[in-house]
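User: Working on a comparison across species. This one is ABC transporter ATP-binding protein from Streptomyces katrae. Can you predict its structure so I can line it up against the others?
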Amino acid sequence: MTTDRTPPPDAPVAVAVREVRKRYGDRQAVDGLSLDVRRGEFFGLLGPNGAGKTTFIEIVEGLRQADSGTVEVLGHSPWPRNTALLPRIGVQTQASAFFVRQTAREHLVTVAGLYRKDAAAADRSLALVALTEQRDVLVENLSGGQRQRLAIASALVHDPELIFLDEPTAALDPQARRDLWQVLRALKGEGRTIVYTTHHLDEAEALCDRVAILVGGRIAALDSPHRLITSAGARTRLLVPEGRIGLDEAAALDGVDRVGEQGGSLVLETSVPGKVLQALDALTGLDGVITRTATLEDVYLELTGHAAAGGPSPAGGGSPAEGTPAHTLESRA
Ligand SMILES: Nc1ncnc2c1ncn2[C@@H]1O[C@H](COP(=O)(O)OP(=O)(O)O)[C@@H](O)[C@H]1O
Ligand SMILES: [Mg+2]
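Assistant: Here's the predicted structure for ABC transporter ATP-binding protein from Streptomyces katrae:
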């Protein structure tokens, strides 16, 4: 499927950032960030609230000036505001502005006009985010999710080759979120470059070619979700129905790193699941044993010690940094 094609490492660069810093008062929001986004890439920026995602993406968009460092977007510096760049990039900011007294369609036609695009472009954009039915609804009467989609449509109306989205799926219900995934995948399938932020780690894992995890204005990790998961040594969890083996017995099994209890199961964490499953098989059989492989969320939690705000909520509510008891670890469906 073309939509899932990852650009090769030597693909031309769409965004090149070197040593970018931004301080607000005594707060170092962005602290020496460097990264490249390749053309055709779907690039995710992850990190807890306050990590600097919005500041960083706004610097790249040309909406904010960095204190130091360099940014190149499609070969141009975005600051000071570069009018040659504007038709080529689409921007949805975290707090989008609307012409609230207009209908959804009027709003989009207005935005399209700013780019010298016609009403047909507005209609295409409305259809793309499934807002055609709401075209005649006043912007102020749209639901939160519908406004979010209108903001995305506004970023796409002029057919940009590079698209920046700051938490586009934050206000969306699960169905709308999945629908937007299809839109984003299709845009990528057309060869566009997408840079976006999200708190949904399952989503980043499903959509992104590469992600950067930001912590305190710095990059804590940058790679494909798959490589992050496999190289972080994130552990597999084996859920054994309670009563099969004792906690101490489980902890003593060769290859088990941690044991906890959760929702009627013993949770065995291991980096060698095959070995532990074999041992379990010999002891109790594997009936009802559930294997949960590591996900991007595990990597994220290890790096940040934070649950993602918009992601699945942790059952134990804990921030499972190294050394926290396993029973505070979250479960994932
Ligand atoms: N305009 C601003 N003035 C002062 N501080 C700001 C401003 N914007 C962001 N910050 C601070 O900078 C840090 C990074 O914020 P932000 O870039 O919004 O992070 P994120 O998008 O990852 O939540 C936070 O501590 C935030 O409070
Ligand atoms: Mg933000």
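For your comparison, note: The first strand starts at residue 13 and ends at 24.

User: Helpful, thanks.
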